[in-house]
Specification:
single chain; about 160 residues; alpha/beta; Nucleoside Triphosphate Pyrophosphohydrolase; five-stranded mixed β-sheet; 12 strands
């Protein structure tokens, strides 16, 4: 399903849903960050997705990372909570979702890099190579916070 992101855009459609979602800043022993090239908006992002009924939020992180990347992870911390009402995502089925995303840190514990229906590419990327990727500004903010190792979680 195609998606278009709007941030601080007066022409953005009005949100009609809010879905709790997660992303994970997964770093390997070399300090590289696990990134996916998304199929819905053609941008690079941290792996993640929507919270399902019956899961803890940490289980959501583990499931989503495995589904999108093939990598098994262990959640290690919280980067922040991102709830900008001026950031909406419009899907081609008519859903217009207000951003509600929780960013976690995680470490790989197994698995093999594998693409999915949501990820056309999966790579370990050195932090100094992130500028070479087309990343949405809201995702770049999460990445910057994760790499900065903030003294307390971001809430905004």
């Amino acid at each position: 399903m195609a998606r278009r992101d709007y941030v601080d855009d007066p022409n953005a459609p009005t949100a009609n849903s809010v879905v709790a979602s997660v992303v994970a800043a997964v770093r390997n022993d070399d300090g590289d960050l696990l990134m996916i090239h998304r199929t819905d908006n053609n941008l690079w992002a941290l792996p993640g997705g929507g919270h399902d009924i019956g899961e803890t939020i940490a289980q959501t992180v583990v499931r989503e990372v495995r589904e999108e990347t093939g990598v098994d992870v262990e959640v290690t911390g919280l980067v922040g909570i991102y709830t900008n009402p001026n950031h909406v995502m419009a899907y081609d089925d008519g859903e217009v979702r207000q951003q509600f995303s929780i960013c976690f840190t995680a470490r790989p514990v197994g698995g093999t890099l594998t693409t999915s229906s949501e990820s056309r590419e999966v790579l370990w990327v050195a932090p100094d190579k992130l500028d070479d990727l087309d990343i949405h500004p809201s995702m770049r903010l999460r990445i910057e916070h994760a790499l900065a190792d903030l003294p307390r979680p971001y809430i905004g």
